[in-house]
Amino acid sequence: MVNVMDPICQKACKDVNLEAFCPVVKVNTENIKLIMISEALPKDIQDYFYSGKSASFFQTTQTAFADAGFEIDHPNELIEKGIYLTTAIKCTKKDYLVSADTIKSCSLLLEKELEVFENARVIMCMGDFAIKAVNYIFKRKFGVKVIPSGSTYRIRDREYIHHGIRFYPSYTQTGDSFNIEKTKRIMIAEDIRNAMEYLNRDIL
Prior knowledge:
This is Uracil-DNA glycosylase family protein. The protein is α/β, with parallel strands linked by helices. The protein has helices spanning 7-12, 56-67, 75-80, 100-114, 128-142, 152-155, 177-180, 182-203; strands spanning 16-17, 34-40, 83-89, 92-93, 122-126, 160-162, 165-170.
């Protein structure tokens, strides 16, 4: 994995807390078929996906999968099912939003992280930060913007496939907003269900 104390981040990322960096997660990269990218690290690293069953990021993700019809009891179960969770921004935010420069800078780190998952067939972009970061990556590597601009609810039902990967633009399943916006919860559940169905078809 990568460390956000990279000089790239120190130079460009002015609206995040550089001292907080994404923990290393041990995983068999060959087994990962679906990558779910959320927006940014939680303020408390104990709330990160793989910090345990009580971590808020895991709990909201667990709820999202339950809404989609998949019961998950522990973060390791997702890894066992070939699902890897990460964030587009590898630091905590200072404010609600971050700049395009920060997302672009951090996408270089996300790119390094994603490169190890050679068997990934689905990437779910959970929120605008994730959508923008993935677009920066694929624009650099292949000259392709994989997900078009536009409101998520307008573009999420279309099919986006590039270099053998199916992309799903959706809403973030982490944070307080997930607990109160029922319409987004419904759409997130639909996107997870569709992604899992596509992945099963692709494997078969």
